[in-house]
Every structure is written in C-alpha cells, then in structure tokens.
Amino acid sequence: MKRLLVCVAATAALALTGCSDDAPNNDGAAAAPTTQESLPPQTGPAPTKPGASPQAGCPVDAATLEKAFVANLEVSNAVDIGKGLTDISCADNWATAMTQPEAVDKATVLFQYDTAKKQWLALAGGTDGVCRSQVPADVVKKLKNC
C-alpha cells in the first residue's frame, strides 16, 4: 500500500511539472482521472451481482460454475462438459447447468453454494436423476434441470 501511494504521488508530481518542452494545452477543461487514480484498491470481498446478497450464491454465471466443476475431479472426470455449461437454473443455494458435449448426450451438473466458504461446489453430474437424493423437494420444483 505504501508503495502504491508513492507511485501515485510520483505520477501526480510528474503531471504537475510536465515532461516536455511543448506548451501545455490548456483549453479550460480538467483532465479526467484515470481508472487507477479515481478508484481505490479493493480490500473487501468481491462485489456481488445485482440482486444477489453476500450470503447467497444466486444468481450465478457459467464461468463460476465451470470453475467449481473443474475443481471436483470426480464429477469433471465422469462428465464431458464440451463447450461449457449452459441453461443455468439457480434457487436457494442450489444450481443446475447443462453440458454441451459434441459426441455424447448432454448431462445435468448439480451444484450447491457453500455459505461458509462462499463458493460453489459441483456435487454430481449425469443424464438422469442427478437431483433425486440430494436436493430438497421444494427446491427441485424451482430448478429447471432436475
């Protein structure tokens, strides 16, 4: 942090003194600050998507679920994800997504959001009955791919 402040101060000093022999272009408008100058570094948790609470996993995007899929070797070795996950459905910290394989049948992948770790976990994948023994009945009704 100390180094960042020194760099910002040095940059500001250079901007004030100038670095060329050209006459300054003063058209009366102040230069807009760059993104780095106008935004402080993020120190807290990552921002959530609109409509999501910090404690909940929904809504969730394909990239996030694909990371969880790859992290579970048992699921990722058993299911061909193909071109990635699509047709995501999310409810009450549970999510399903469909795979996009090229040479085999599409499969459903089941995910659950771990509120303690604040991350998605891939639980199971397959072509039939993926949600049956793991997802509560009231949530199954809300998930499109169960």
UniProtKB/TrEMBL annotation:
Keywords: Signal
Record bears the keyword Signal: yes
Feature: compositional bias, Low complexity: 23-33
Keyword Signal carried by entry: yes
Protein name, per record: Lipoprotein
Top-level taxon: Bacteria
Signal peptide: 1-22
Record organism: Dactylosporangium siamense
Region annotation Disordered: where it falls in the sequence: 23-57
